[in-house]
């Protein structure tokens, strides 16, 4: 809407700008003009935007835009344009499963035909082919991916972080750039009285409360504050030291006006009348007729505090035996001093940013606030200011090439509009960054949607921002973001170990199903054996590996490269080598056992060795440096190990079960050898594979 006439209207635009301080709008009867000139944020101008709140004043306005043409509507259109591409992990998993599935089907057909043609037993050939197919298909991959992401989301929920899209949990660990909004993310999104200036010097609030002059200054400021106000600076004044006015309602109010941006209230006291005035320093200086050295020093103090990102108001009072004149400009107010406000930095932010930067994660602040405020908050938080502050107006003036060059170093951005936030996120992504974006306003929603990891505030965030985000900080705790990055790195490392384990253990399973047929030995593995093995492999890879904690050095290493595959050539070669070690050891065991024992006893020995090698390799592959043998995180593995060995003992000891599986308990020396070969092969496989560098 366009304000046609008004008695200064004050508007809370934080939903669109993220800024805690309301702005002033002034009526104008001029033509509508160019829609592009309707900038959100900043004082002045006649425009009222959909989604904002009137906190003071009244006026008459004309509707000029509705629906998608409003500032709020343009945000909605930008959200609708953003898609949700598959993550690198999802693409890798799909490719692995596709290749493994094709190999399984191909080998199944080849083995069935080969077995049937050479031995004239097509039923046994079909079973052998089916066994090999079951052994080759890594059906654990999608299951592991789902379990890891779900349990990761649960762990984040315990830290009061809600995961809306589980795939983003893995992406957290690869974050290279953290783009943060200032208001409500780095700061608390509230005003706090930060400093006073009186008697020619600046004072801290805590120490000044013991001084009579400072108390007079604060009392006058409270008298000039609206009762039951929504203005954050009024609330901050009333909160400090529990100050309040008990004299009922003011008998007269002079609200903000274009010609006098100061708020004045007149009160009745037992011995006369008192008025308080606060507002823009220039307006209060005029009310007081201030000049000379006092005005110069007050103006210098105002500029100094504004340069530190503080909001500064001047305060004056008036006392008399009769009511104040109709126009307070001629009453002769007494200048008392300046009050300065800040949106305080969250206590956990500096420490969290140091941890993130120590992990090689660059941090950028993108805000709609003024450059001086942005610079001050960035300095307090520890964000790099060496390349200066880049404003929205400067971004508009830069060519795309020049902007990309500036983005290599600049990490603080001020007076940024919603569409520019989105453009900055996309530009950083074009530089190869994995971007995590935080925000709480409607203006942040397009950027949250476009970033690989969108993070919204749960308490102060808008519904639109929460809907667009991947993660929601339920306690608005910035430190939870770093916890999420630690968890993401842990999940990535454990997922890689689990996939190496799955691939490695399928090599001996497939080899033991195929090699005896090619050599001419009796079949070693049948479908029942493979099914039993899968009942061990599935919980091991899904639970034992997921429970492994993050390494102590997880946040002292740089982020992985965005193009680095979760399971690339190096991991495949390492897994194949580890699996080959186990395969060779068990084939030698099976061949030697066949020479000195019956087929069922040899099969029992080889199968025992395979189970033990499986468990030994899983135990070693899921190990984290410094982790104790009986550490709590090891509990899932030991439970699975106990159940697996109990079932194995049952199969070997109970004749009916042994007959079902086609194996018999081997003689004690052979059983001991099988246990020794299985444990040794599992441990040796890990040593011969490049596990420590996976």
From TrEMBL:
<feature type="transmembrane region" description="Helical">
    <location>
        <begin position="96"/>
        <end position="115"/>
    </location>
</feature>
<feature type="transmembrane region" description="Helical">
    <location>
        <begin position="127"/>
        <end position="151"/>
    </location>
</feature>
<feature type="transmembrane region" description="Helical">
    <location>
        <begin position="605"/>
        <end position="630"/>
    </location>
</feature>
<keyword id="KW-0547">Nucleotide-binding</keyword>
<feature type="transmembrane region" description="Helical">
    <location>
        <begin position="531"/>
        <end position="552"/>
    </location>
</feature>
<keyword id="KW-1278">Translocase</keyword>
<dbReference type="GO" id="GO:1902600">
    <property type="term" value="P:proton transmembrane transport"/>
</dbReference>
<dbReference type="Pfam" id="PF00702">
    <property type="entry name" value="Hydrolase"/>
</dbReference>
<protein>
    <submittedName>
        <fullName>Cation-translocating P-type ATPase</fullName>
    </submittedName>
</protein>
<feature type="domain" description="P-type ATPase A">
    <location>
        <begin position="3"/>
        <end position="78"/>
    </location>
</feature>
<dbReference type="GO" id="GO:0006883">
    <property type="term" value="P:intracellular sodium ion homeostasis"/>
</dbReference>
<dbReference type="InterPro" id="IPR008250">
    <property type="entry name" value="ATPase_P-typ_transduc_dom_A_sf"/>
</dbReference>
<keyword id="KW-1133">Transmembrane helix</keyword>
<feature type="transmembrane region" description="Helical">
    <location>
        <begin position="670"/>
        <end position="688"/>
    </location>
</feature>
<dbReference type="GO" id="GO:0030007">
    <property type="term" value="P:intracellular potassium ion homeostasis"/>
</dbReference>
<dbReference type="InterPro" id="IPR044492">
    <property type="entry name" value="P_typ_ATPase_HD_dom"/>
</dbReference>
<dbReference type="InterPro" id="IPR018303">
    <property type="entry name" value="ATPase_P-typ_P_site"/>
</dbReference>
<dbReference type="InterPro" id="IPR023298">
    <property type="entry name" value="ATPase_P-typ_TM_dom_sf"/>
</dbReference>
<dbReference type="InterPro" id="IPR023299">
    <property type="entry name" value="ATPase_P-typ_cyto_dom_N"/>
</dbReference>
<feature type="transmembrane region" description="Helical">
    <location>
        <begin position="572"/>
        <end position="593"/>
    </location>
</feature>
<dbReference type="InterPro" id="IPR006068">
    <property type="entry name" value="ATPase_P-typ_cation-transptr_C"/>
</dbReference>
<dbReference type="GO" id="GO:0005886">
    <property type="term" value="C:plasma membrane"/>
</dbReference>
<keyword id="KW-0472">Membrane</keyword>
<comment type="similarity">
    <text>Belongs to the cation transport ATPase (P-type) (TC 3.A.3) family. Type IIA subfamily.</text>
</comment>
<dbReference type="GO" id="GO:0005391">
    <property type="term" value="F:P-type sodium:potassium-exchanging transporter activity"/>
</dbReference>
<dbReference type="InterPro" id="IPR036412">
    <property type="entry name" value="HAD-like_sf"/>
</dbReference>
<keyword id="KW-0067">ATP-binding</keyword>
<dbReference type="InterPro" id="IPR059000">
    <property type="entry name" value="ATPase_P-type_domA"/>
</dbReference>
<feature type="domain" description="Cation-transporting P-type ATPase C-terminal">
    <location>
        <begin position="523"/>
        <end position="680"/>
    </location>
</feature>
<dbReference type="GO" id="GO:1990573">
    <property type="term" value="P:potassium ion import across plasma membrane"/>
</dbReference>
<keyword id="KW-0812">Transmembrane</keyword>
<dbReference type="InterPro" id="IPR050510">
    <property type="entry name" value="Cation_transp_ATPase_P-type"/>
</dbReference>
<dbReference type="InterPro" id="IPR023214">
    <property type="entry name" value="HAD_sf"/>
</dbReference>
<dbReference type="Pfam" id="PF00689">
    <property type="entry name" value="Cation_ATPase_C"/>
</dbReference>
<dbReference type="GO" id="GO:0005524">
    <property type="term" value="F:ATP binding"/>
</dbReference>
<feature type="transmembrane region" description="Helical">
    <location>
        <begin position="637"/>
        <end position="658"/>
    </location>
</feature>
<dbReference type="Pfam" id="PF00122">
    <property type="entry name" value="E1-E2_ATPase"/>
</dbReference>
<dbReference type="GO" id="GO:0036376">
    <property type="term" value="P:sodium ion export across plasma membrane"/>
</dbReference>
<dbReference type="GO" id="GO:0016887">
    <property type="term" value="F:ATP hydrolysis activity"/>
</dbReference>
<feature type="transmembrane region" description="Helical">
    <location>
        <begin position="498"/>
        <end position="519"/>
    </location>
</feature>
<dbReference type="InterPro" id="IPR001757">
    <property type="entry name" value="P_typ_ATPase"/>
</dbReference>
């Amino acid at each position: 809407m366009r304000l046609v006439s008004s008695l200064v209207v004050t508007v809370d635009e934080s939903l669109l700008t993220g800024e805690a301080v309301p702005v002033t709008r002034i009526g104008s009867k001029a033509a509508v003009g160019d829609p592009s000139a309707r900038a959100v944020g900043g004082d002045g101008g006649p425009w009222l935007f959909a989604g904002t709140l009137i906190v003071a004043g009244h006026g008459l306005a004309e509707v000029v835009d509705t629906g998608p043409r409003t500032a709020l509507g343009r945000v909605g259109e930008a959200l609708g344009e953003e898609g949700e591409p598959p993550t690198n992990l999802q693409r890798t998993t799909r490719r692995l499963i596709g290749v493994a599935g094709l190999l399984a089907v191909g080998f199944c057909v080849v083995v069935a035909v080969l077995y049937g043609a050479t031995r004239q037993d097509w039923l046994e050939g079909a079973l052998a082919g089916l066994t090999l197919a079951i052994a080759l298909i890594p059906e654990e991959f999608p299951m592991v991916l789902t379990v890891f992401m779900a349990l990761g989301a649960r762990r984040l929920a315990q830290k009061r972080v809600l995961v809306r899209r589980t795939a983003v949990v893995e992406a957290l660990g690869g974050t290279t750039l953290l783009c943060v909004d200032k208001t409500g993310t780095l700061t608390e999104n509230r005003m706090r009285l930060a400093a006073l200036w009186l008697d020619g010097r600046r004072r801290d609030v805590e120490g000044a409360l013991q001084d009579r002059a400072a108390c007079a200054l604060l009392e006058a400021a409270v008298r000039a504050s609206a009762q039951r106000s929504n203005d954050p600076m009024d609330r901050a004044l009333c909160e400090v030291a529990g100050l309040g006015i008990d004299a009922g309602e003011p008998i007269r109010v002079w609200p903000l006006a274009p010609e006098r941006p100061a708020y004045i209230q007149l009160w009745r006291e037992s011995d006369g009348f008192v008025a308080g005035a606060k507002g823009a320093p220039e307006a209060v200086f005029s009310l007081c007729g201030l000049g000379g050295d006092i005005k110069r020093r007050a103006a210098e103090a105002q500029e100094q505090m504004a340069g530190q990102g503080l909001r500064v108001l001047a305060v004056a009072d008036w006392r008399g035996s009769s009511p104040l004149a109709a126009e307070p400009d001629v009453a002769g107010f007494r200048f008392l001093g300046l009050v300065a406000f800040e949106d305080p930095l969250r206590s956990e932010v500096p420490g969290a940013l140091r941890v993130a930067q120590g992990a090689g994660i660059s941090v950028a602040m993108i805000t709609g606030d003024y450059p001086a405020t942005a610079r001050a908050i960035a300095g307090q938080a520890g964000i790099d200011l060496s390349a200066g502050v880049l404003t929205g107006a400067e971004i508009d003036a830069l060519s795309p090439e020049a902007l990309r060059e500036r983005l290599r170093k600049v990490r603080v951005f001020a007076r940024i509009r919603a569409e520019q936030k989105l453009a900055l996120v996309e530009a950083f992504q074009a530089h190869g960054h994995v971007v995590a974006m935080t925000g709480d306003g409607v203006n942040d929603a397009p950027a949250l949607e476009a970033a690989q990891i969108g993070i919204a505030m749960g308490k102060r965030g808008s519904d639109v921002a929460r809907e667009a985000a991947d993660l929601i900080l339920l306690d608005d705790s910035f430190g939870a973001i770093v916890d999420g990055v630690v968890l993401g790195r842990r999940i990535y490392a454990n997922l890689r170990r689990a996939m190496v384990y799955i691939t490695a253990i399928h090599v001996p399973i497939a080899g033991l199903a195929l090699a005896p047929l090619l050599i001419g030995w009796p079949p070693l593995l049948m479908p029942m054996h493979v099914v039993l093995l899968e009942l061990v492999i599935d919980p091991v890879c899904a639970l034992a590996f997921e429970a492994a904690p993050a390494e102590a050095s997880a946040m002292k290493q740089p982020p992985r490269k965005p193009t680095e595959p979760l399971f690339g050539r190096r991991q495949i070669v390492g897994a194949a080598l580890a699996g080959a070690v186990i395969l060779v050891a068990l084939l030698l065991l099976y061949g030697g056992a066949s020479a000195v024992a019956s087929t069922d006893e040899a099969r029992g020995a080889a199968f025992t060795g395979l189970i033990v090698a499986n468990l030994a390799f899983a135990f070693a592959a899921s190990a984290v440096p410094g982790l104790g043998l009986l550490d709590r995180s090891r509990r899932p593995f030991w439970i699975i190990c106990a159940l697996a060995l109990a079932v194995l003992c049952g199969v070997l000891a109970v004749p009916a079960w042994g007959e079902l599986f086609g194996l018999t308990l081997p003689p004690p020396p052979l059983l001991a050898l099988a246990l020794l070969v299985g444990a040794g092969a599992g441990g040796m496989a890990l040593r011969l594979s490049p596990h420590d560098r996976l």
